[in-house]
Request: fold
Amino acid sequence: MDRVLDSLGLVRSGEYLVAYIPATERALVFRVRSRLNEGREVYNYGPIPLKTGTSLPTYTGGSTAVPEDGVLPANSYTGGMSFQAPQIMKDYVFDANDIWYIIETYRDMLFHVKTYITPSFLRVDVQIPIGNPQGRFQKDKFIIGVDRDFGFARGYIELIHFPKIHYGYRFGNDTNLDVRTFVKFIYGEYRVETPMDANLIFDILVKREPAYWLTLPISILDPTAESALIETYGYAGFRIYKHTDRNTALADYNNTLRMVKV
Reply:
């Protein structure tokens, strides 16, 4: 049995979660104190939030209209969109247009979200923050994603939603059929803390201490996203060192830990 993950692929209480950001070669480290939705991790959200009549670009360069709520037309793709809260939740969540959005003072809370899309052949990528595509080829030579020939996933994406950042999901249908869509989330609403022991952080980041690593699809760290991380946690990640650089790493980590908001 996996020590760190449960059967749903979510982090067990008491274990560690590492969010790695390729753009900066740094990682945020969390201890999952508890899972607030233990035993209630499945959320059958419903269709992709597409409204009848919405104009979408097509892969042939033209445009087409959404024929019915939740239907992704043939040969089309979306811009970045957040998942709206259902009507019953709209007056209670922080942002009715984005169910995963929380404010920076909720720094002890984190959403770990696994998104399953039906049909499973649909393309999917994410903008972090919304409006900022993250797919890149040869560093910054070419932007890729659902609107290109590659640079996307199909039917599934896994993310950590940080506070104060709106994410933009994009979907693409490269078949010749209009398709009815459905989205299911398996998510953990974690209560988290940053470990305040530099030795422990080093052992986690050189993989001597078990942890679940999730590499975020961030090839360019937008200044607003970096600012959101700093406002929320006091830092934007620990640098990854070689296992032979322990003393240098500990000095660096101790400096960073002085800035961590608890």
Q: What stands out?
A: The longest strand covers residues 182-193. Residues 122 and 173 are 5 Å apart (CA to CA). The chain has a mean pLDDT of 96. The two ends are 32 Å apart (CA to CA).
